[in-house]
Amino acid sequence: MTLKEKLETDLSSAMKARDEVRTRTLRMALTAVKNEEVAGKQSRQLSDDDVVKVLTREAKKRREAATAFGDAGREEQAQAERDEGAVLEEYLPAQLGDEDLTALVADAIAETGASGPRAMGQVMKAVNPKVAGRAEGGRVAAEVKRQLAE
């Protein structure tokens, strides 16, 4: 079963269970996936990796919106965004811990022989495929920058 099929099956189950948050979140996720499929000149079927990228993007939007609502004192909306983010997290690969991320970046630096902040792009290029969906780009970039500055 592909990830998209799992989302569709879970949406059906959530609708039957009258789980509003889950239903709303899965509908939004499937809409984002379908929009991605028809984006561009030719429609295409997304692979599971592509669906994970879409879901990661949507989860990031939820985190940012929750922070914005929280900062504005709109706690109810912030909690709704966090709830949606929690549903999306169930479909994403487990996030890397700080130790794992540090080790991956160290390996990439050793592999590329990079040194100094100017080599950041070179290291990011090597580390991104290994991280793919398991850590946010900002976290990865911060760790690369920290290790290259040492």
Automatic annotation (TrEMBL):
Region annotated Disordered, chain positions: 64-83
Superkingdom field: Bacteria
Matching Pfam families: YqeY
Biased composition (Basic and acidic residues): 72-83
Transmembrane segments: none
GO molecular function: carbon-nitrogen ligase activity, with glutamine as amido-N-donor
Name of protein: GatB/YqeY domain-containing protein
Native organism: Actinomadura bangladeshensis
